[in-house]
Design goal:
The chain is mainly α and about 70 residues long. The chain has 3 helices and no strands.
Length: about 70
């Protein structure tokens, strides 16, 4: 009985995570569409070199910039 309950809880958590991933992908798509109107100079200003949660290379990837252009 406990194994069935644990499996159900696991599936419920997985469903929630899948929904969250879908929502985040949608938000990222909208952000990229919004940022497509910016030129590279404006996008480089958005990169935070000391950001605790996002490394520079990840920020560049999200903004569609080459990492070498921000140094």
């Amino acid at each position: 009985m406990e194994m069935i309950q644990a499996k159900d809880e696991s599936q419920a958590k997985e469903t929630v995570l899948i929904q969250q991933v879908g929502w985040l992908r949608m938000k990222l798509k909208r952000l990229r569409q919004h940022l497509s109107g910016f030129d590279a100079h404006e996008l480089r200003k958005l990169v935070e070199h000391g950001h605790p949660g996002l490394r520079v290379n990840r920020q560049c990837a999200l903004l569609g910039l080459r990492r070498s252009t921000v140094w």
